[in-house]
């Protein structure tokens, strides 16, 4: 229909599901030994990297080599940077309050509930959201202008995440800022530089599938799902519910864009 190897891609979907499942089950095993479920957040980026690497191997002989290497590399850079950042941020801390509250209300066995509602759900989301990462590696066309636009959007996203995370870490490291709201640097333009960065990363990776319109039509569900998660799911919505009672946060909300970066509004 488009010169796209749909049969090989369908087989790859099974390989990628296995890779994502292996990562989340290994993480669940570690959580059982440590008694801490926050490490599943570290596994998020690692699972995407595993899917990208498995696809790179499985797509041999199908997709354009430069595109395959590029897509796998971009995904790994984003995923491993995120995993390292979350690992450093949570080092020496106990359970994440989100998971503590969830498991305290869990019906039946809390560990089985965590397995189904946290780990396996996360593995399924990795598989779905990573469709562009998988499909792009089976496209046999050289990189186009749209691909370059996707790379630029990915770079913008990773830069926003990395800079925003570094600014927040420096702010929190200063004892003088204890109890204050971070409203400087990128955080004065958007309340969620890291989530906006993720948004750009996944729409950028999606653009790498757009040289074959029918493939892009199949994969567009992935950045849409990621956008919903970031803005209305476990990202922005839950974080702002948690921050709502912090002194000064309401004023910060009034002067700072909720997602897309915009100049700060005057009080």
TrEMBL record:
Keyword Transmembrane helix: yes
Annotated keywords: Membrane, Transmembrane, Transmembrane helix
InterPro entries: UstE-like
Gene3D superfamilies for this protein: 1.20.120.1630
One GO CC term, this protein: membrane
Domain of life: Bacteria
TM region(s), chain numbering: 6-30, 42-61, 111-131, 138-160, 201-230
PANTHER family documented for this protein: 3-OXO-5-ALPHA-STEROID 4-DEHYDROGENASE, STEROID 5-ALPHA REDUCTASE C-TERMINAL DOMAIN-CONTAINING PROTEIN
Protein's recorded name: DUF1295 domain-containing protein
Species of the source: Streptomyces xanthii
């Amino acid at each position: 229909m488009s010169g796209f190897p749909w049969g090989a891609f369908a087989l790859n979907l099974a390989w990628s599901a296995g890779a994502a499942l292996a990562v989340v089950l290994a993480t669940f095993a570690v959580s059982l030994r440590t008694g801490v479920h926050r490490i599943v957040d570290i596994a998020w980026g690692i699972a995407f990297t595993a899917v990208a690497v498995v696809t790179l191997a499985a797509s041999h002989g199908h997709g354009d080599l430069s595109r395959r290497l590029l897509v796998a590399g971009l995904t790994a850079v984003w995923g491993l940077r995120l995993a390292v950042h979350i690992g450093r941020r949570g080092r020496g801390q106990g359970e994440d309050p989100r998971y503590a509250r969830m498991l305290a209300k869990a019906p039946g066995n809390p560990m089985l509930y965590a397995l189904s509602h946290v780990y396996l759900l996360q593995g399924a989301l990795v598989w779905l959201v990573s469709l562009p990462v998988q499909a792009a590696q089976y496209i046999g066309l050289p990189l186009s202008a749209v691909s370059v636009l996707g790379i630029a959007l990915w770079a913008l996203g990773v830069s926003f995440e990395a800079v925003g995370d570094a600014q927040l870490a420096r702010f929190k490291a200063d004892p003088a800022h204890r109890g204050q709201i971070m409203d400087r640097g990128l955080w004065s333009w958007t309340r969620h530089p890291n989530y906006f960065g993720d948004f750009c990363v996944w729409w950028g990776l999606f653009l790498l599938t757009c040289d074959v319109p029918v493939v892009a039509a199949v994969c567009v569900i992935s950045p849409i799902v990621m956008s919903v998660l970031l803005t209305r799911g476990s990202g922005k919505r839950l974080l702002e519910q948690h921050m709502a009672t912090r002194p000064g946060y309401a004023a910060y909300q009034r002067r700072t864009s909720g997602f897309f970066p915009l100049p700060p509004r005057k009080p």
